[in-house]
Amino acid sequence: MRAPTSITRAEGERRASCEECLVSGADGVILRICASCGHIGCAEGSRGDHAAQHYAETDHPIAVLIGSEGASSWSYPDRRTI
Question: Which CATH class is domain 19-81?
C-alpha cells in the first residue's frame, strides 16, 4: 500500500470560484462542487444559485460544499444533506 501524498497549494493558484459568477463579475459566496463532473457553482444564499442551475441542466444529483470543515454533500433530488 502506498503512503498518502500531501497536497500543497501551488503558488499563484486561484481559489475555487463559481464559473458563472466569474464570467458575470458576481461573487459566489457559498460554493458547491459537482460530484459527477467537478463543476463549481455558487449555492443557495448566493446571488445566482448556479450549482442548482447546473443540476437542472445536467441531472448530476450530488454536490459537495467547498470550504467547510466537514464535507457536506447535498442531494438535489432529495433536497437534503447526505
Answer: alpha beta
